[in-house]
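Morning run. Coffee first, then this:
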Amino acid sequence: MRSLSTQQLTRRRLSSGKGARSGSLYLILAVGVSGLLTYAFQFISTQSLGLERYGALATLWSATFLVAQVLWTGITQMLGRHIAEREARGEGWEEVTFSARRLQLLLLCGFLIATAVASPALIRLFGDWKLTAAFVLAIAGYAHGYYRRGVLSGHRQFVRLSGIFVVESAGRVLIAAILLAAGAGTVGAAMGIALAPLLSVWIIRVGSIEPPKRPGSSFSIGGALGFAAPVLLCSACAQALANGGPLLVSALGGAEAKRQAGLLFAGLILTRAPQYVLSPTIANLLPHLSRLAALNDRQGFDLFVRRAVGVMSIAGAALILVTWLLGERIMPFFGSEFRLGRGLLTVLAVVAAFYLVAELLNQVLFARGLARLAAMGWLLGICATGLATWLLDGADLLERVSYGLAAGTLSTVLALAAFHWLTLNRLALSAESPDVEDPIEVEALDPEA
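And here it is:
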């Protein structure tokens, strides 16, 4: 056994940093295109459906991405982290993918049983059994999509990973446009949501992978749950803050609930433009952060985190400023019925800005093996949202929900930052990563070593 030399660590840090930068560039470009296609889908839907029927589609969209990301993001993160770590050490990763598949199958079976039991309530929520069927099909399709994303991320196949986002968004627009033109109405747009993930998995496959230098250690489903369970809790809370607003309006509202849900959703779509581009990029920083943690490269880790937080903070500040200046003018893009005031749009921009920083800090804690602390941070955010919404009882419904989400995302950022800072000097960078590597591991990490 021997420690990594300073020269070896420096070369590895530079090599890994270049991979992270090039991978992030691919993802930023791809998700930028995906974001434009998402706006195209929303524009086509609003123009074809009107505010009332668009409200039903907004409820479907929010529920789909909330549930899909709650169920499957943990699988993606687990695959990305553990495949990257094992590949960095030259170890096999088959045990990780096998355990992920088993866990995913169990979750899917549980989801199908739950939806069968709750089908009357789901039909009331969506207003149509066809939309309920589209919801179930979409969640099942995203099981494959998120698994593929995790494998591609772990192996750092960023071009193919970027293709997943573009193909999915393009497929959603194409399917919806054809069916809406054929007169399918809300169901046509819903089928675009449901079928797009299956199309992306069918077209984008995993590329060739260099075989591992030695077998990997066992990785049971219990080990998968040890990481995935708190990640699932993080995802549940995060998606409640990101996509739960329209659902909360539907639950608290009266006869105008569907219209108000559609209006809030349109405001969120407008103010979250940078989030659509940056969120997938942030999620795919986990393999890079995990590799730095596996090397116990505290200097490289801290430098990367500081720079990333700075970039996210600048992006969030720019988003708030642009929304305050232009948001009210851009809102009619969705149609004459879709109008929100500058103040409320700015609050929604604040929500998006805080959410970006919280996502980044989330990945930092994941890479350090502190997923449970991350889950606690998001739970505090949910509690803050509920408390703020309750305290604002009597205010306009959209204002109550918007200010509640702002309080929740701010509380999450403060909690995650505190957990990272308070544990930084008390715990090893990664509890699962050794401080020393044997010669074979060093060779696997750096071909020039």
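Residues 6-445 form one domain. Good start to the day.
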